[in-house]
Task: inverse folding
């Protein structure tokens, strides 16, 4: 997820606190207990995208985010779809043991080892991909 975000949405830097995965801190740049405790969430540039505020990304970035989520077939959710938006947040959105999770794990593994299949190789403006992304977004609308 983070690698696709880096190539397709905006460049990630490993600056302290800008990419947060697992944390044993119950307050992860937010006033809520999060999926960071079990290690099933990422916060990407949490200081740049205020909690509760929507519209922090440019339209082409939202298109790329939606494309990534569609590629991951709903296994990963985005805090930007929450009623109280958390646009820097991405999290596993299926129960433990889900067959969809195993399928996506295999997809990610293949992307990593197959030339031309991983991050930075997608045309997020392809009409078929845009339709898939919009379909997933409409299913997630709260």
Result:
């Amino acid at each position: 997820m983070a690698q696709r975000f880096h190539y397709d949405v905006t460049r990630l830097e490993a600056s302290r606190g800008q990419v947060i995965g697992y944390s044993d801190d119950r307050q992860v740049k937010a006033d809520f207990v999060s999926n960071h405790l079990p290690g099933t969430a990422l916060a990407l540039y949490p200081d740049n995208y205020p909690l509760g505020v929507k519209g922090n990304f440019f339209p082409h970035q939202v298109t790329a985010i939606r494309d990534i989520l569609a590629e991951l077939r709903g296994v990963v959710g985005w805090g930007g779809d929450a009623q109280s938006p958390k646009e820097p947040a991405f999290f596993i959105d299926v129960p433990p043991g889900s067959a969809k999770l195993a399928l996506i794990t295999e997809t990610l593994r293949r992307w990593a080892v197959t030339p031309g299949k991983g991050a930075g190789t997608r045309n997020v403006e392809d009409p078929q991909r845009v339709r898939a992304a919009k379909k997933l977004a409409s299913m997630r609308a709260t």
About this structure: The chain is about 35% helix and 10% strand. Residues 2-140 form one domain.
